[in-house]
Amino acid sequence: MRSTITGIAGAYRFTLLAGAATFALAMPGTAFAQEQDPEVEAPESSNVIIVTASKREQTLQETPISVSVTSGETLENAQIRDVLDLQTVTPSLRVSQLQSASATTFIIRGFGNGDNNFGIEPSVGVFIDGVFRSRSAAALSDLNMVSRIEVLNGPQSTLFGKNASAGVISVVTKEPEYEFGGVVEASYGNYNAMVVRGEVTGPITDNIAFSLDGSYNKRDGYARIVNLDEELSDRNRWSARGQLLIEPSTDFKIRIIGDYGRIDEVCCQVSTLVAGPSAPAVFAVGGALDTNFFSYNTFLSQVPRNTVDNYGGSIQADWNVGNLTVTSITAYRELKNFLDQDVDFTSADVVTETRDQKVDTFTQELRIASDFDGPINFLLGGFYFLDQDVDFTSADVVTETRDQKVDTFTQELRIASDFDGPINFLLGGFYFDESISQDSRLTTGADTRAFFSLLAGNPLVFNGVEQGLGLPQNSIFSPGPLTAEQFAMDNKSWSVFGTVDFEPADGLVFTAGFNYTDDKKDFALAQQSFDELANINLVDAFITGATRANPNLPDVFTRAQFQALPGAVQQQLLAAATNPATNPLLGLTPFQFQPPFLNLPNAVEPGRTQDDQFTYLLRAAYEVSNEVNLYASYATGFKASSINLSRDSRPAFGDYIPGPGRSSFAAPASPITNGGLGVANLGTGSRFAGPEKAQVYEIGMKAQWDGFGFNLALFDQTIKGFQSFLFTGTGFQLNNAGEQSVRGFEVDATINPTDGLVFTFAATHLDPKFNSFDESPVGNLTGARPGGIPAWSIATSATYTLEFGDSGNSLVTRLDYAHESNVAINNGLPTFNAALRNTRIFQRETNLVNASMTFKLENGLEIGAWARNLLDDQYIITVFDGVAQAGTVSGYPSQPRTYGGLVRFRF
């Protein structure tokens, strides 16, 4: 079991020293440490940390779950403003922000997805004050007035449902207090970074308290759009929140929260790693690109805009009835996301993207928990969730606009016991009802036709094609509408769950838990394709032309007419039509990158998934002494089927079988073909992905002595049917990755050699493997190591608090270091590697040093300085195939060094 109570890391030399100290004091092998948290530790430095990872309050040491805890004080000292920076103190967690401020993926132990498609449920669930945030964009507001953040590693489906097959991030904010007080803070740094935040709390009456907090965060962009003379990758966001705490009696408590957050940013910097064969065409149509990856210079045809409005409210009621606790959480949230972006990432008007999204969320949670003196306690609950989301688009040779809406309603009911006897329990029920609608469109840019004509090697190529196929002149890739899509999905699920703790002897606890989930999705997709070229199959067009030119053959315009020809004639026509030497039209195939797709539901595809799954937990925990706890567990997890709500949605192979060159004339018999439902250039394979099923074996130890703490977790985790979602250069492919596993360990140690000095060292070691993945976008990956998962992730820290006698003044100095070992970013790119057969795989290694120093005066005034990425480490976050530019590789560079000073006043 590992816990990241605070994650202060030091420079590389200090890392080695801290690691050596851990080896000597703890065990042979790498250790992961954390500092004590003065805000939450008990008197006499007993280091008692209260967590709610099991949906009941327990100390961190007695919680037999691999959970990392980062305190509010650590977030403050390390200048961690949002969950993007949280990974520097939590080695098992990785957070990636990609093409926009709202496109974020959370990954735990190498597993995570769901950032770019609203039809794909996340594998890592994010909860803020018990309220589920169904989209990552709803979890990105600045972290303010935070009590702690718990990161639960591994499958958590027993208590957190079908959205937690890889883990959970739980943010717990401070409750209002009955003593008046607050904090005001202002910070200024490079790139004109300015952060102002504050919070105030106090009593209204003897049993009602309030709190108000807010933050404003603005920074110039660290990148530049050269041709437009505009900054890129800036920071411009604010948030506000108000709370009421009402306690009519000692057994009844109501907490009311309302919040609003706004992001309006120009994001994000994309650099070119490899300029492919299309680069000369970019320059020829007046565009440009920069191949110096870390120059932070880019060329775009328009300024990318991303605005996010995230707001809502919740009411939580806790009622103690004897040794039972009933908890109800009711919440409503809305998320609106707008994105307008150039997605070919050059100054040529080739592809731009616009997204306009909205998410409305309503949740209701009710829990009953027991607190008996007996050996058995329970928790029973119900949860109801309502979530709504709106718009998403992409284009520049093509521009895209998306309008999305998600309505979600949830209801959870839980009853938990706290008996003195040997048995305690938790029982619950959960209901989930979500509806999603999306309208999106692509628009062809002004440079598209010229750009693609240059790639074809003939500026008049499309004029000749139009003449030969009988199309109006200048109709192919003419500026204007390219596609329009309409998507809708309704998801209803319910589950029952519970845990039972049996303590037959003092210190020995056996736990059994279960969750049964029934999940149903109904979805509909429709498209209108306005691209003349994409609506023509080039094999079938050749056959039609050949038969019309041959007086000995009947004209062929349909599959039935082709199938009526003698078999030998069919084979001769098909051989000529699929041979580039005889069919020059085949050279146009790469330009049919947005073909139409088959609408559904239809007579073959009902547009429905139905999943049900029983997951469970078995665990034994033993308190060897007051200082040492041991545990062993086996748990399973589940995530329901996901739907590809995009224009790349294609029917499953078998429902439809395309002919050579996606020919409809020569397509073999299949339900879709037999039903006369096929459309031109129909492909297969990315309509939806089946359920994920996870399991994890884990053994761990938690130990705490005076001046030294040590935690260890060893695990073997497997996910069958992991839902792989990969960008292919013009769209996204969704499919199941047979089986993926990871073995490893998480270890942490905290050392207090003397008063005021705390060393921590934390490490996660992962050994992942594709046990089976036959049909990935880059070929058969069975037996390969999944890309992007480093073998080692390390976070180490040193904190020294210098007290100036009895004055009450102190100087707090913090140094932390976060490291990820060198790793292949992915297993190759669908175009650059698989299609073009390039063997180059791009690598990433991170070495981040952060530092802060704060002088705290007894009167509440604090003056400090801070730096993140102090040594200006540069690394590639991720890479992808250039949009509509075969052979080009683009990627996201890391953020440069930032630093500044702050003034804070506590009252």
UniProtKB/TrEMBL annotation:
Gene Ontology annotations of biological process type: iron ion transport
Signal sequence annotation: 1-33
Domain TonB-dependent receptor-like beta-barrel per the UniProt entry, residue ranges: 309-870
SUPFAM superfamilies associated with the record: Porins
The protein's name in its UniProt record: Outer membrane receptor protein involved in Fe transport
Domain TonB-dependent receptor plug: 60-168
Location of the protein in the cell: Cell outer membrane
Keywords: Cell outer membrane, Ion transport, Iron, Iron transport, Membrane, Receptor, Signal, TonB box, Transmembrane, Transmembrane beta strand, Transport
Family per record: Belongs to the TonB-dependent receptor family.
Lineage of producing organism: Bacteria, Pseudomonadati, Pseudomonadota, Alphaproteobacteria, Sphingomonadales
Gene3D superfamilies: TonB-dependent receptor, beta-barrel domain (2.40.170.20)
Organism: Erythrobacter ramosus
GO CC, any one term: cell outer membrane
Mode of membrane association: Multi-pass membrane protein
